[in-house]
């Protein structure tokens, strides 16, 4: 029997970042950490890359930093077989990725780890800002349910947007180690590295203290029991990293998300 295969695709763009650039360098940094001999191919599920499932690297989207990039992302995602993990890049990539997968699968649920809700209608006049992808996703009807975890920057506008779209938010102040989400539809998992406390992930553009631990996110991934059709790991900024430690964290989350996908295949 053929092993499950998870597609990996890099989307090296940060043109919609609002504060600092640098996440465009992240796909290369994450791949280097995944390939580094400092670790091995084992995941915490007890499965191993190459033994129990494959990760198929589809390369990087050819980004031009112009209005055509969303179409380039859509075309590249369409060409990737099976479940996939997109490596950002800034969080703006989630919109065309989710939009494309929704065309394939129909609307699904989203589990979103972040310090920020990314629900702005626009930021600094940019409706494609990395602060706005989930507003675009919910407007388009691409997700039936959006559950956000680790949020700790809710302003009035984003609270109003969350109410408008029926978003379920587990703020960091309310999160408890035994919290687990329950889904009854196929799932997309979006992991913004700044969902983590900066103590665990300093290599991000927006340091927001009071965040999640790596252990907490991994434990949630380990307990997922619904088909996972896609996901992304975004907002690593290698220019802010220390000794590559945040890239290693991102690589671990990629491995554990891929293992969760292999264990929970979509029909």
What do these coordinates show?
This protein is an alpha/beta fold and 267 residues long. 30% of the residues lie in helices and 19% in strands. The protein has helices at residues 26-35, 69-79, 94-105, 133-139, 156-165, 214-223, 245-263, and strands at 5-11, 54-60, 84-88, 108-113, 143-151, 168-171, 187-192, 228-234. α1 crosses α7. The mean pLDDT is 97.
Q: Report on the biggest sheet.
A: 8 strands, parallel
The shape is: globular
Write down the secondary-structure element order.
Answer: EHEHEHEHEHEEHEH
Helix content: 25-40%
If strands are numbered along the chain, what order do they take across the biggest sheet?
2-1-3-8-7-4-5-6
Alpha-beta content class: alpha/beta
Q: What fraction strand?
A: 15-25%
Give descriptors for this structure:
single chain, 267 residues, alpha/beta, eight-stranded parallel sheet, 8 strands, globular
């Amino acid at each position: 029997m053929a092993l499950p295969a998870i597609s990996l695709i890099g989307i090296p763009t940060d043109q919609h970042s609002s504060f600092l650039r640098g996440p465009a360098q992240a796909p290369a940094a994450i791949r280097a950490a995944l390939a580094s001999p400092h670790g091995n191919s084992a995941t915490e599920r007890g499965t191993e890359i190459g033994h129990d499932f494959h990760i198929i690297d589809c390369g990087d989207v050819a980004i031009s930093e112009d209005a055509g990039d969303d179409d380039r992302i859509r075309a590249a995602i369409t060409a990737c077989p099976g479940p996939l993990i997109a490596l950002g890049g800034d969080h703006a990539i989630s919109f065309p990725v989710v939009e494309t997968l929704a065309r394939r699968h129909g609307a699904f649920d989203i589990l979103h780890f972040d310090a920020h809700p990314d629900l702005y209608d626009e930021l600094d006049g940019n409706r494609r800002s990395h602060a706005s992808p989930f507003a675009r996703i919910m407007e388009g009807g691409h997700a039936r349910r959006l559950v956000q975890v680790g949020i700790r920057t809710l302003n009035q506008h984003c609270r109003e947007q969350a109410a408008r779209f029926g978003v379920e938010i587990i703020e960091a102040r309310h999160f408890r180690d035994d919290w687990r989400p329950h889904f009854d539809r196929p799932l997309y998992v979006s992991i913004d590295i700044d969902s983590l406390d900066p103590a665990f992930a300093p290599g991000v553009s927006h340091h927001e203290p009071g965040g999640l631990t790596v252990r907490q996110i991994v434990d949630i991934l380990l307990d997922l029991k619904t088909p996972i059709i896609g996901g992304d790991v975004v907002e690593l900024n290698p220019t802010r990293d220390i000794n590559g430690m945040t890239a290693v964290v991102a690589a671990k989350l990629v491995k554990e998300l891929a293992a969760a996908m292999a264990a929970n295949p979509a029909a």
